[in-house]
């Protein structure tokens, strides 16, 4: 069994990395293998030294559904400790929030995708702590989609945002602790930084090989499979297709009221052939809220069958291209503000480039997509190598 960083704090040498008064950035998935929450664990070890709690997007209790729906600060009724939102009026800890803290401990379950905002919250906190002389310690956790395979386009500087701060691909193949090293080493964050590493985690591991419980890291990822498919299906947030929010299998499905699912999946199979490592199943779903809320949608449910061989990013881009071809004028890009960006299309922010959207709009080939995807991989691998903590 893999042991998370939080499970190793009883080791004196590891605990010694956490000095002075402590703030803890965490959420509902911050649990050990017995489902004990990190606040309880840390409080039992360091007592009154734990003085503040911080919550990322979706909140400390991970109950807020959507992008740009903010959470508030409050005094926790059980712990009697202030809980500060890093997805409210600010996404950067303020001087007031950090007052009295010597070490900021970060225990967040990431899902290995660049747009998942917890890595942005981590690195923004690192930058702020650097200006205050506050140490940052990450309690590391597995990357659910593994630490070897990279996928997706490299973020271009023009499309930098809260869903992408650094030149990394969509599937970055790092743990949260490694992302901190990546940012510190390559983007000159002069912060005292440490990681309490996991035990027994290997880069080749998928989530199910870790033998750890799954707790939703955000409201719309109820299953480990969802974290893998999300590498690709997050792109549907940049369209007016439903990605299943408001249904029970959000981000594993995609659809539209004008799609007949059996006809569409038959078309996908003819155009794309067999999808290595996954099965595309015709599905009908009825979102209760968000896009097409209250309307029945037809589309596709993506079922991974082999985590090692499935490539969700490329698969989802090709499926989206075919949605666009099938729907014609009824296919639309999402033009509303996305993660506090108002002048760029969400699809370009998600992909970190406009090249993929333009590829879709000209109905480009699969090989063209591969060529676009792999631009800059060698440089990224070089930047990533000096951040890796596990073999």
Describe the protein's architecture and organization.
The chain has 2 domains: 5-218 and 380-385, 3-Layer(aba) Sandwich (Rossmann fold); 224-353, Aspartate Aminotransferase, domain 1 (Alpha-Beta Complex). Helices cover 29% and strands 13% of the residues. It is built from 13 helices and 10 strands. It has helices at residues 12-15, 38-46, 95-98, 118-132, 176-186, 207-210, 224-233, 261-272, 312-327, 346-351, 355-361, 366-373, 377-385; strands at residues 22-26, 50-55, 74-75, 82-85, 103-107, 135-139, 193-196, 253-256, 278-285, 297-304. α2 links the parallel β1 and β2. α4 packs across α5, α7 (224-233) crosses α9 and α8 (261-272) crosses α9. The two termini are 16 Å apart. The model has no long low-confidence stretch (mean pLDDT 98). Residues 228-390 form the Peptidoglycan beta-N-acetylmuramidase NamZ C-terminal domain. It comes from Halobacteriovorax marinus. Pfam families: NamZ_C (PF20732), NamZ_N (PF07075). This is DUF1343 domain-containing protein.
């Amino acid at each position: 069994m893999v042991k998370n960083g939080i499970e190793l704090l009883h080791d004196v040498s590891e605990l010694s990395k956490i000095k002075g008064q402590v703030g803890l950035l965490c959420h509902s998935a911050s649990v050990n293998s017995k489902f004990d929450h990190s606040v309880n664990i840390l409080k039992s070890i360091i007592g009154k030294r734990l003085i503040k709690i911080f919550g990322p997007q979706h909140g400390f209790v991970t109950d807020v559904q959507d992008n740009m729906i903010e959470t508030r600060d409050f005094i926790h009724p059980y712990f009697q400790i202030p809980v500060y939102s890093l997805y409210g009026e600010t996404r950067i800890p303020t001087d007031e929030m950090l007052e009295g803290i010597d070490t900021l401990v970060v225990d967040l379950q990431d899902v290995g995708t660049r747009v998942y905002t917890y890595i942005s919250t981590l690195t923004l906190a690192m930058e702020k702590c650097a200006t205050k002389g506050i140490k940052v310690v990450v309690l590391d956790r597995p990357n659910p989609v593994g630490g070897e395979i990279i996928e997706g386009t490299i973020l271009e500087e023009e499309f930098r945002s809260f869903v992408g701060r650094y030149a990394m691909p969509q599937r970055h193949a790092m743990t949260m602790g490694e992302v901190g090293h990546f940012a510190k080493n390559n983007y000159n964050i002069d912060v005292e930084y440490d990681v309490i590493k996991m035990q027994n985690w290997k880069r080749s591991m998928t989530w199910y090989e870790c033998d750890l419980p799954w707790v939703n890291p955000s409201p719309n990822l109820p299953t480990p499979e969802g974290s893998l498919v999300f590498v690709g299906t997050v792109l549907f947030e940049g369209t007016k297709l439903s990605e299943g929010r408001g249904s029970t299998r959000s981000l594993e499905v995609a659809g539209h009221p004008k799609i007949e699912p059996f006809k569409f999946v038959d078309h996908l199979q003819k155009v794309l052939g067999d999808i290595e490592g996954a099965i595309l199943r015709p599905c009908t779903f009825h979102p209760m809220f968000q896009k097409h809320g209250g309307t029945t949608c037809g589309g596709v449910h993506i079922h991974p069958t082999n985590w090692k061989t499935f490539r969700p990013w490329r698969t989802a881009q090709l499926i989206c291209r075919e949605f666009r071809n099938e729907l014609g004028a009824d296919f639309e890009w999402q033009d509303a503000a996305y993660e506090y960006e108002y002048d760029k299309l969400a699809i370009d922010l998600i992909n970190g480039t406009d090249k993929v959207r333009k590829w879709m709009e000209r109905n480009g080939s699969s090989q063209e997509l591969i060529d676009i995807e792999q631009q800059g991989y060698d440089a990224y691998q070089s930047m990533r190598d000096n951040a890796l903590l596990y073999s």
